[in-house]
């Protein structure tokens, strides 16, 4: 599926130099069955030695694979053929490449720019609450919650996005948002810390592990929220969340998407 969040024709292959180890590892691990992607990635890396070096050193677990696909890459490609291979890879990885360009993310991702913060603020009482946002991205949920909460922790595993949020906090003198690293399956917080733990477009790779971790850090009587943005996708309610005791709330986005948000009160 192509979202067109980036225009790959205008994006340098060096953009991968801005991405984190977990993204490089994912690119080198999760698409090995996709022969066309592997062929283009090999050709692009063979002709971009600095990016190939970065892949192998930033993600040492990917080094054997990087060396293998470079060794198998077509030889003697023209500059135009190399650029076509780069564009193929950039397009294929656009949902990760866009993390290198947070302003582009805010401008081009409809789930961010079409969203109304009331869809979050109606889900719980944020007044004076201690809140965790897991996988904050550019801070769609975190900055909305901060308008009412006492303190928001924005947890985000992508360095460029952490820096984007820190720059915004400095620029706008926001005093109650702190930005930290962390993934949904391994959050750097003590048990029973937060009144509200929220996320959007993050939970789903491993529901059991991720929800166990979100539940661990929420206080007894606290709330877990899953609040996606207003995209244009037609979808059904998430049976995995409903089956784990979440309530669902439905609305139609401006662009006709079926948007479900979820809430679960946690009793320990
Ligand atoms: C599609 S974006 C959504 C950003 C934000 N939550 C929003 O809805 O506007 C997904 C975000 O989750 C982060 N992410 C990816 N894997 C993650 C994980 N395992 N745990 C926490 N965050 C993750 C990405 O770096 C990215 O910022």
UniProtKB/TrEMBL annotation:
Biological process according to GO: methylation
Protein name, UniProt field: Methyltransferase domain-containing protein
Entries under SUPFAM superfamilies matching the protein: S-adenosyl-L-methionine-dependent methyltransferases (SSF53335)
Highest taxon, organism lineage: Bacteria
Keywords assigned by UniProt, alphabetized: Methyltransferase, Transferase
Organism annotation: Paenibacillus typhae
InterPro entries per the UniProt record, alphabetical: Methyltransf_11, SAM-dependent_MTases_sf
Taxonomic classification: Bacteria, Bacillati, Bacillota, Bacilli, Bacillales
Keyword rRNA-binding: no
């Amino acid at each position: 599926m192509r979202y067109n969040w980036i225009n790959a024709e205008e994006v340098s292959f060096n953009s991968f130099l801005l991405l984190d180890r977990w993204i490089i590892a994912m690119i080198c691990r999760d698409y090995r069955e996709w022969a066309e992607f592997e062929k283009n990635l090999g050709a692009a890396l063979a002709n971009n030695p600095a990016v190939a070096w970065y892949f192998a050193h930033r993600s040492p677990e990917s080094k054997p694979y990087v060396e293998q696909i470079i060794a198998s890459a077509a030889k003697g490609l023209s500059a135009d053929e190399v650029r076509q291979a780069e564009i193929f890879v950039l397009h294929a990885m656009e949902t990760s490449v866009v993390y290198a360009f947070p302003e582009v993310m805010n401008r081009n991702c409809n789930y961010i720019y079409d969203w109304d913060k009331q869809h979050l603020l109606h889900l719980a009482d944020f007044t004076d609450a201690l809140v965790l946002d897991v996988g904050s991205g550019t801070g769609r949920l975190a900055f909305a919650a901060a308008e009412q909460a006492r303190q928001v922790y924005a947890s985000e595993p992508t360095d460029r996005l952490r820096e984007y949020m820190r720059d915004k906090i400095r620029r706008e003198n926001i005093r109650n948002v702190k930005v930290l690293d962390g993934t949904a399956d391994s959050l750097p917080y003590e048990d029973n810390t937060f009144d509200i733990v929220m996320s959007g477009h993050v939970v789903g790779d491993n529901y059991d592990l991720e929800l166990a971790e979100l539940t661990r850090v929420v206080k007894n009587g606290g709330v877990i929220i899953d609040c996606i943005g207003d995209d244009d996708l037609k979808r059904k309610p998430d049976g995995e969340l409903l089956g784990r005791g979440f309530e669902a709330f439905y609305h139609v986005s401006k662009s006709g998407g079926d948007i479900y948000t979820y809430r679960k009160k946690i009793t320990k």
